[in-house]
Specification:
elongated, 2 helices, alpha+beta, 4 strands
Length: about 200
């Protein structure tokens, strides 16, 4: 009788010890899967925003308000994350479909090469409440470095390639693995040619 009682106590002690070892590892694994899933979601959101922006850029071509509508489209693509996690968007002239963002464009807009936008520029209006041009876009203060009207859309001259680079920040919830991750995606498309 006494042997059975000791055996049961030993079994309970072993089960408690196993639970004490396995539970933290299991909880850590669950947090890791959660963090990885959220990182993957933000990565896909950044990719989607870049692709949507490039499609808008391609169809808007050399319209004066092209960059304004590119930003609206990128903003729509970033809805799952929000603009508070946006570092910048770069609209740049690409030399081909495999080009990369010019290094100088990652810090500021460059004449004839790129327009760089941060989250604050997403709130700049195209027109004021009376319908008058605000001077922000249409080759105004924000998109003047690479004015949309200078983009080539003629088949005879060869249409330009346009790149949209979106950079965001992913903030980890638990902070167990790292504080954050920078995510970036670039999509390059050829501008749709004008009908001639």
């Amino acid at each position: 009788m006494r042997l059975r009682s000791t055996s049961r106590k030993a079994d309970r002690g072993a089960a408690l010890l196993e639970a004490a070892v396995v539970t933290p590892v299991f909880v850590l694994f669950v947090f890791f899967v959660l963090e990885l899933g959220l990182l993957f979601r933000d990565s896909l959101t950044t990719d989607n925003a870049s692709r949507e922006g490039a499609r808008a850029a391609s169809t808007r071509g050399n319209e004066a308000d092209a960059d304004y509508y590119i930003l609206r489209t990128v903003e729509h693509g970033l809805e799952a994350m929000g603009l508070e996690r946006l570092d910048h968007v770069i609209v740049f002239r690409a030399t081909g479909p495999d080009d990369t963002v010019p290094g100088s464009c990652t810090t500021s807009s460059q004449a004839g090469l790129c327009n760089r936008y941060t989250a604050t520029e997403f709130f700049a209006e195209l027109d004021d409440s009376l319908g008058n041009d605000t001077g922000n876009f249409r080759c105004g203060s924000l998109d003047a470095s690479w004015c949309p009207t200078t983009r080539e859309t003629s088949l005879a001259a060869g249409t330009d390639f346009i790149g949209i680079h979106v950079q965001t920040r992913h903030q980890f919830i638990t902070g167990l693995f790292t504080n954050g991750q920078t995510l970036s995606e670039t999509t390059i498309l050829r501008l749709e040619p004008d009908e001639e």
